[in-house]
Amino acid sequence: MTELDAALKTLQEHGIKKTSQRVSILDYLIQNRIHPSADTIAQGLGMNLTTVYNTLEVLVSIDLVYVIDSSQDGKKHFDYFGHPHYHVVCRNCGKIVDGENIDMHEFPTLAREASHYLIEQSSLEFTGLCEDCQKLFGLTN
Ligand SMILES: [Zn+2]
Ligand SMILES: [Zn+2]
């Protein structure tokens, strides 16, 4: 099964209709792991910005798409979140990289054990300086 098939299956499981906009945006996010803003997605797909926002809202509501509020450019960035992963954000240029080398499947269970809360969402984010910015600041050998 392709990543897109898996995403569409999740739509179906939530009883959400497979509209062409939803398919296009999911496909775009799966192909472009650049954590784009809604503007970038609208431009990339030649789609109306309002349609992009409305479509993203549905995808976010079922946790297929994850929102990153960037303090760098003040924009929301969107990310296909079919697999739990964490983010490493550069505090200087705002570049966001996915980290998949930590098994995060247990995290909600652990959080529930620690707090007895009903866990609904989780995120893990590291902030630092990317390689380019380390060079910029003369922090590499
Ligand atoms: Zn950077
Ligand atoms: Zn990500």
Automatic annotation (TrEMBL):
InterPro entries for the chain: FUR, Fur_C, WH-like_DNA-bd_sf, WH_DNA-bd_sf
One Pfam family hit: FUR
Keywords from the named record: DNA-binding, Metal-binding, Repressor, Transcription, Transcription regulation, Zinc
Alphabetical GO biological process terms: negative regulation of DNA-templated transcription; regulation of secondary metabolite biosynthetic process
Binding site for Zn(2+): C90, C93, C130, C133
Cofactor section: Zn(2+)
Gene Ontology MF annotations: DNA-binding transcription factor activity; transcription cis-regulatory region binding; zinc ion binding
Cofactor binding summary note: Binds 1 zinc ion per subunit.
Family the UniProt entry places it in: Belongs to the Fur family.
Protein known as: Transcriptional repressor
Source species: Weissella muntiaci
